[in-house]
Structures are given as C-alpha cells and as structure tokens.
Write the structure tokens for this entry.
Amino acid sequence: MITIMVNPNRANDKDRTFAKVLTNQIYIIINKLITNKLTTMKIKYLIILLVVTTAISCGSGNQGADTDKSTEQKAGEATVHDPMKNKGIGPVKNLVIANEIDMEMAAKGEEIYNLKCKACHKPTEKFIGPAPKGVLDRRTPEWVMNMILNPEIMIKEDPDAKALLIEYNMAPMANQGITEEEARVMLEYFRTL
Ligand code: HEC
C-alpha cells in the first residue's frame, strides 16, 4: 500500500480492488465523522485520502504497465552495483596507471606471480581462482591491489569479493604476505596477459 501511495501508477489490478474496498470504508468513516461533528481539518485530511485511493482504483491498466517499466528501470539503476567504481577495502585508495605497460615491472611481477600465485591462478584460464587475464576490464586497479593485499577483509566486507567467494565455492583468496610494491608489479604483469 505504501508503494501505491507514493506512486499510484504502479498499482496493479489487485491493488485497485484493495483501493476500492478502502474507498468504501473511508466513505463510511466520513459519514460517521460528519455526524459526530468532527473538526473540518480532520475531514479535509480524510477527503484527500479518499481522492488518492479513488485515483488508484480508477487508474487504467495499460497506463500502469507503461509507467511500471520506467519506474522499475529507474529503481534498477539506483541499486545496481558497478564493480568498475569499486576501489575495495585496503591500503590502496587511488592508483593512476600509465597508458604504456612498463615491461620491466611486468617481468618482476611475473616472477613473483609464478612463485606465490600460480598454485591457484592460471594466467589465462579459470582454476582454483579466476584468471588474472583481463582483470582490469572488470575491476578497478585499486580493487585488484586491495584484493591481493587485504583478502581476508575483502572477502568478508566487499560486495564484489564476497560474490567472487561464493562463485568459487567458498575457496578463499589467500593472503600471501605481499608488499604494496610487489602487488603493483604483478598488476603490471596482468596487463600483459
Ligand atoms: C590458495 C589459493 C590462492 C592463492 C595462493 C592465491 N589466490 Fe587469488 N584468489 C583465490 C580464489 C579462490 C579467488 C576467488 C575467490 C575469492 O576471492 O575468495 C581469488 C581471487 C583473486 C583475485 C580477484 C580476481 C578477480 O577476477 O576478481 C585476484 C586479483 C587474485 N586472487 C590475485 C592473487 C595473487 C596476485 C596471488 C599471489 C600473490 C593470489 N591471488 C594467490 C585463490 C588464491
């Protein structure tokens, strides 16, 4: 009923029947109130309520359906979560990445990755964890760094990391005791994949 009050156009047939019943009830109450000599203020308030419920009960079905679509779209936009705007939780707040890939950094990154990550991550295909190939197309660089540096908190509190944990059958991303600099060069390596 609250939704209908806010937006009568969202009302469906069931709501309308309900509103009709309510309208009748309000008529009865108003009659009683007038005979009881209530203040005009209260009567005015009831009449406004009556107008709203009548509007709902008389609303055309088609009109409602059209408006339904756009309202749902708007509601969707407001609640949809965009991973490309999520920087995650951890020490990395802002990271600017140069257009050119730094191959020296990437080589260092590959070395560390082979030592500490390969047991669970194949570079280009899904394994125990996701493939780092193309990770920056679906995540912000800050998020990736924070996931490497702060996985325990990320999988508990970050919406995208939590979803990933479920997707990977609750296998948690491991904290490998990586420094920020090491995480940064690995990120550079991921860009070459
Ligand atoms: C013990 C296995 C394991 C190890 C070792 C491991 N990870 Fe993970 N990682 C996972 C799993 C499982 C996920 C996905 C589920 C989750 O987040 O809990 C994941 C997720 C990630 C993600 C998010 C990927 C995406 O597509 O969003 C990144 C980035 C990542 N790991 C990087 C690394 C790096 C870098 C290392 C090495 C320092 C590493 N991981 C070591 C298991 C591991």
About this structure: Residues 13-35 form the longest helix (23 residues). Residues 116-117, 119-121, 128-130, 132, 135, 139, 144, 147-148, 155, 161, 164-165, 168, 171-174, 176, 178, 186 surround heme C (CB under 6 Å). The chain has ten helices and no strands.
